Amino acid sequence: MNDPLRGLIVAAAFLAAVATPPRVACAESAPLHAEIPPTVSAALHEARIPSSAVAVVVAPLDAGPLALSVNESVPMNPASTMKLLTTYTALNLLGPTFQWRTRVYATARAHAGRLDGDLILRGSGDPSLVIERFWMLVHRLRGLGLRQLHGHLVLDKSAFEPNVEAGSPLDGNELRPYNVPPDALLVNFKTLTLDFVPDPAASVAHIIATPALAGVKLPASVPLSSGTCGDWHERLKADFSDPWAPRFAGHYSLECAEQSWHVSLLDHTQFVGAAFRSLWEASGGSWIGQVREGRTPAGAIDLLTHESPPLSDIVRDINKFSNNVMARQVFLTLGAPEPGQQASPERSVQAMTSWLSRVGLTMPELVLENGCGLSRRERISADSMARLLQHAFASARMPEFVASLPVAGLDGTMKNRNAASGSAYVKTGLLEGVRALAGYVLASSGHRYVLVAIVNHPNADAGTAALDALLSWVQEKG
């Protein structure tokens, strides 16, 4: 996990750059522009994107001179900028200190380190149960004196309704980690990382798998070759048809240096079982049994509780790095705020729209599906997104929210984009046919602005230069 304090310090610098306190509102404090700036228009023309496919709102947060609205009321697919709505709602409904709890139970009492009964893991949708934290849970179990497990590992996923993960991945590629569906007991994003490390002396590239998954048999290495790196994934000629025994019929180029391939192979239950068995046996324990799904029975013995980091940390990881599966876990949690209530997308949509209505952020055009933007159905207008950002900047949740946004030219998904470098805190959005930016810009004048820009067009992948030109225009002219 990244250090949340660093993000808060950077956000504080953004706020301190202007001595006057912020005041939301604003478009009437500056002449309203209805035409896209020339530099942005030229970039759109170069990309063959018509202005009708672009929605833009630039609104001052103080007495700044710029205000721009173009197609602001048109419902648009926002891609991953939809995560701003989900995370800001979560910070308000759940609170920045909210934590998920994974509870461990047993169906019998252990004697002399041996459990003759089932061990139960009951999830609550923790988005952050990465392998390091899962190891801590196993380590704590061993610390209770358990050594031998003679029973099943039962995964209680009743916090989420059974069909929340129904449906095909957006692009049909189930191996890609961003397509991992949500799960009440999500471990390490259900993702296996394969590191390829060249060893010229042995003429091979070693394959290092993280985490170790019991039962998954991987080759130790692939042949090393010379030549350009190119599409190294393709050159490996990977065969994942048997997820328990991946194969590589190709080679790996020395020029590629070290590379990582993140893949999602097993289903959720298989992944947890394989990861648990590997960690348990590596810690000196033994396990005779299998993994299965089930409910926690009445009278189960409470062994321990594992707590997630606070929501403020989770939100930072979601927005900085646009983590889809974490956003979906948070989205579903919004639909089950009460203990014992099962989460569902429908309950989440109801909870979010009810809160928006209560705080005066009506969005009649809003369409929510999974809350992360990995959707062809989700819609929001640039105006609604801008109003959400204005509301957030004036709220008590502003420090956590602003600190979660990528900083142009410095970190997250904006690390390699230099427009308004160090002065723009903006979430990116990227889908086939969609490019988007939404967040805050500190202009060279010291004025602060909300900026929202969404492109929906088949040529959107060529529209990044136009979005960067808009960032630069606000930073330079504002």
Q: Please provide the count of β strands.
A: 20
Strand order in space, largest sheet: 2-1-20-19-18
The CATH topology name of the largest domain reads Beta-lactamase
Q: CATH architecture of the largest domain, please?
A: 3-Layer(aba) Sandwich
- State the distance separating the first and last CA atoms: 35 Å
What share of residues are in beta strands? 15-25%
CATH class of the largest domain: Alpha Beta
The 3D shape can be described as globular
What is the average per-residue confidence, as pLDDT, rounded to a whole number? Answer: 92
Instruction: Name the CATH superfamily classification of the largest domain.
Output: DD-peptidase/beta-lactamase superfamily
Unreliable stretches covering 5 or more consecutive residues: 1-13, 15-28
What's the tally of helices? Answer: 12
Radius of gyration: 24 Å
Approximately how much helix is present in the residues?
25-40%
Total domain units: 3
